[in-house]
Automatic annotation (TrEMBL):
It catalyses: [(1->4)-alpha-D-glucosyl](n) + phosphate = [(1->4)-alpha-D-glucosyl](n-1) + alpha-D-glucose 1-phosphate. Its EC number is 2.4.1.1. The lineage of its organism: Bacteria, Bacillati, Actinomycetota, Actinomycetes, Bifidobacteriales. The gene is glgP1. Belongs to the glycogen phosphorylase family. Signal peptide: none annotated. It comes from Bombiscardovia nodaiensis. This is Alpha-1,4 glucan phosphorylase. Phosphorylase is an important allosteric enzyme in carbohydrate metabolism. Enzymes from different sources differ in their regulatory mechanisms and in their natural substrates. However, all known phosphorylases share catalytic and structural properties. Allosteric enzyme that catalyzes the rate-limiting step in glycogen catabolism, the phosphorolytic cleavage of glycogen to produce glucose-1-phosphate, and plays a central role in maintaining cellular and organismal glucose homeostasis. InterPro entries: Glycg_phsphrylas, Glyco_trans_35, Pyridoxal_P_attach_site. Transmembrane segments: none annotated. Pfam families: Phosphorylase. Keywords: Carbohydrate metabolism, Glycosyltransferase, Pyridoxal phosphate, Transferase.
Length: 823
């Protein structure tokens, strides 16, 4: 099928390439690009050669699509995100371009194992967790749906830190040197470099205000091609690197000031060094704001240059018809005053016209309900770093307040809604700026979107209800089922009679009837057993873990945060261990479990890092105690990333989604687990609500307080110690921690954790503990019936089709972006 511009959406870029041709191209790349004979090449060299060849296969479709996007009349999408957690690109590119089978044949001809080639790829750690993985899923789905789009972000030299654990179980942060040997996917396009300025002052020139910056950096784009699945569309992920305009001062060097000679280079390149620099210091805060403005300013300038090539005086009133920008969380919100500055100061538009353009271009996705997670920047910092933007923000705030006054809003409510707070040291509320300065605000799950309207942004939704909508998150089934779980993927295709479900995930519903087919259930059980065996081998090879494949795999993998309540899980493990040690429970009566954690804590988050230390030391004690051998073990593989997820998720049988109700925006891990045949134990929080609704209450292990219960307990006064005194299991667990059982007798090691549990416990871990222990008993009973468990798991897979990122993107297209495939 072709559209009016002739873009073929049914052909894949590599669909006409044979295995023999691909082998010849890879051989040539090895000889000419790396000066090595194929017979002498290492897996790493073959990986780089393969990536270069696959990338070239996509270039024609990529260039054609970019050209037709600019010449056509379809509104493009600009996805602005500080994070993109991409995962390994070679297997995904092979699948989406139709080169999977030819690559297998080429490797056989060249004498290499494909898995060895895939293993040689370094994973770019350009995200922290769900936010970055969601962004990666969405740019994949935009291409797969044939929608012209750019992903915009930063190419961090070191990305998120590489996590290690020391001998005491504490997290240590190391630089993630993913670029140390180069990488073959990104193309530095110096011809599209942009100037990004900082500091200085603003001067009046007649009726115009002119920003005179102190210093500037060069934003150099590194382009990554994003092929859609069987769509023929290849979009662009454009990640910016910061470089100095004068990288080396020879005069300074010749004065023997060798360090001073490279100060401008160091200052500039620091901006794109590390994802989320620790910001507990003024310098850290300033660097974070520099990062945010850097990539947004470069991206907006790039978009204008893309859609108005060579035009000295472009008609930017048409910009909203050419592209819309999605603000993925508050990190890119500084783009609103930046576009106003561009329109007024550089292109001569008046305020009203510039504001009309701006508010029709931007939309905002809120990813949190936690007040502390809604960014607020000190006005003094913005004024210092971006003085013209501070003026524009003040004027936006002044006009917004005037509008509220005209609507006869009370002074009290106006103060709650101000973009710039009234205080001796005012702050700019970035979520409020995004809400006022854009067309739509969306939450990322039904419950989250409702709480966003009812609580977090209540005043705004009451006055501007038309702005608020919901788009429940989704994940790409290509990476997280087809690539991560090929056995299950093959079984699904066998059961449904085709692989069309990969681009229409709702077709999984056809599996529901097979949940009662004994033959299909047996095959499903075999798939899970084989996946567990694979993970055992992977964990032994990667971490040195010895894991019993005949235990239940019980996993909790997510960013380490108090509201996600890893503490609840580890306290339950300790309670179980304490019951065995005290003789209350015979370990032979337990359903054998391997509890697996995966999590990173922000470098400055002391409580989260103490929790990591506790988990590691509980694992050390439990795993070395012969009394519970074969019945209970705890594993914490370090440096959780996409590679680990792709091995662990297909092997997991029980997924832990136990955040306090009303705190998790959505989650996407819960969707990946359900799609891969895990059962969920969870609260009614985030997308858990929708998962449970779709898979059925009988196939979801629900426990704990609901949002209304949490709110009531907050208002009545929460006393965590009362729960500690009331449940002997909880008391035994906390007492073990306090007594030094997991710190070699040192009672002070976890004092902060214990004191917080007993005196504060803001996220009510202790209040939900009894219900959590009770549901775990139900889980044990269900797991003893393996066929019944498998039936529940199949029903989970069959009813998870809604949670596709393709569906989520279609919702954005319909509700927010108002565009579609290339016309």
């Amino acid at each position: 099928m072709t559209n009016q511009q002739g873009l073929d959406y049914t052909a894949r870029p590599g669909s006409t390439v044979s295995g023999h041709e691909l082998a010849n191209q890879i051989s040539q790349e090895l000889r000419l690009g790396q000066e090595v004979e194929p017979s002498q090449a290492t897996s790493a060299q073959v990986y780089k050669a393969s990536a270069a060849v696959v990338r070239r296969q996509m270039v024609e479709a990529w260039q054609r699509g970019q050209s037709q996007m600019v010449q056509g009349h379809t509104r493009a999408v600009g996805y602005l995100s500080a994070e993109y957690l991409l995962g390994k690109q070679l297997p995904n590119a092979l699948l989406n371009t139709g080169l999977e089978a030819p690559f297998q044949q080429a490797m056989q001809e060249l004498g290499f194992e494909p898995d060895d080639i895939f293993a040689a790829e370094r994973e770019p750690g350009l995200g922290n967790g769900g936010l970055g993985r969601l962004a990666a899923c969405y740019i994949d789905s935009l291409s797969s749906e044939g929608v012209p789009a750019f992903g915009y972000g930063i190419r961090y030299q070191y990305g998120i830190f590489e996590q290690a654990f020391d001998q005491e179980g504490r997290q240590r942060e190391l630089a993630d040197t993913w670029l140390e040997e180069g990488e073959p996917w990104g193309f530095e396009n110096f011809g599209r470099a942009r100037r990004v300025s900082f500091g200085g002052s603003v001067v009046a020139e007649g009726d115009r205000r002119t920003w005179q910056p102190d210093w500037a950096v060069k934003a150099v784009p590194v382009d990554y091609m994003v092929p859609g699945y069987a769509s023929g569309r290849v979009n662009t992920l454009r990640l910016w690197e910061a470089k100095a305009y004068q990288e080396f001062d020879l005069a300074t060097f010749n004065q023997s000031d060798y360090i001073g000679a490279v100060v401008p280079k160091v200052k500039a390149e620091t901006i794109s060094k590390v994802l989320y620099p620790e910001d507990s210091t003024p310098q850290g805060k300033e660097l974070r704001l520099e990062q945010q403005y850097f990539f947004v300013a470069a991206s907006l300038a790039d978009a204008i240059a893309t859609f108005y090539p060579g035009e000295r005086e472009p008609d930017l009133t048409t910009l909203p018809s050419k592209i819309c920008f999605q603000l993925n969380d508050t990190h890119p919100v500084i783009g609103i005053p930046e576009l106003m500055r561009l329109l007024m100061d550089e292109h001569g538009y008046g305020w009203d016209e510039a504001w009309s353009i701006t508010t029709r271009v931007f939309n905002y996705t809120c990813h949190t309900l936690l007040p502390e997670a809604l960014e607020e920047w000190p006005a003094q910092l913005i004024a210092h770093l971006l003085p013209r933007h501070w003026e524009i923000i003040q004027e936006i705030d002044r006009r917004f307040v005037a509008d509220l006054q005209a609507r006869q809003v009370s002074d009290e409510q106006i103060d709650r809604m101000r973009i710039v707070t009234k205080a001796d040291q005012p702050k700019v509320r970035m979520a409020y700026l995004a809400t006022v300065g854009g067309s739509y605000v969306n939450g990322v799950a039904e419950l989250h979107s409702q709480l966003l309207k009812d609580v977090t942004l209540k005043d705004f939704s009451a006055l501007f209800p038309e702005k608020f909508t919901n788009v429940t998150n989704g994940v790409t089934p290509r990476r997280f089922v087809r690539l991560a779980n090929p056995r299950l993927s093959a079984l699904i295709s066998e059961g449904l009679g085709s692989d069309a479900w990969l681009s229409d995930l709702e077709q999984l519903k056809g599996l529901e009837a097979l949940a009662d087919d004994p033959s299909f259930v047996d095959k499903f059980i075999e798939v899970k057993r084989a996946n567990k065996a694979d993970f055992v081998a992977f964990a032994q090879r990667k971490y040195g873990f010895e894991i019993d494949p005949d235990t239940m795999f019980d996993s909790m993998i997510k960013r380490l945060h108090e509201y996600k309540r890893q503490s609840l899980k580890i306290l339950a493990v300790i309670a179980q261990y304490a019951a065995v040690k005290s003789g209350q429970v015979d370990p032979r009566s337990l359903v054998p479990r391997t509890v697996i954690f995966g999590a990173k804590a922000a470098p400055g988050y002391a409580m989260a890092k103490e929790t990591i230390q506790l988990i590691n030391n509980v694992a050390r004690v439990v795993n070395n105690d012969p009394q519970v051998a074969g019945a209970l073990s705890v594993r914490f593989p370090w440096n959780y990333n996409i590679e680990l997820a792709e091995h662990l998720i297909p092997a997991t049988e029980l997924d832990e989604q136990i955040s306090q109700a009303g705190k998790e925006a959505s989650g996407t891990g819960n969707m990946k687990f359900a799609l891969n045949g895990s059962l969920t134990v969870g609260t009614l929080d985030g997308a858990n609500v929708e998962i449970r609704s779709r898979v059925g209450a009988d196939n979801f292990f629900l426990f704990g307080m609901q949002v209304e219960d949490v709110d009531r307990l907050y208002s009545e006064g929460y006393d965590p110690r009362a729960y500690y005194e009331a449940d002997p299991r909880l008391k035994a667990a906390i007492d073990m921690v306090a007594s030094g059982s997991f710190s070699e007798g040192e009672r002070s090691t976890y004092r902060n954790l214990v004191e917080d549990w007993l005196s504060k416990d803001y996220f009510m871990t202790l209040a939900d503990f009894s219900a959590y222990m009770d549901i775990q008993s139900e889980i044990d009973e269900a797991y003893r019936d393996q066929r019944g468990w498998a039936r529940k798991a199949i029903i989970n897979v069959a009813n998870s089709g809604f949670f596709s990122s393709d569906r989520a993107v279609k919702d954005y297209l319909e509700r927010i972006w108002h565009t579609g495939p290339q016309e």
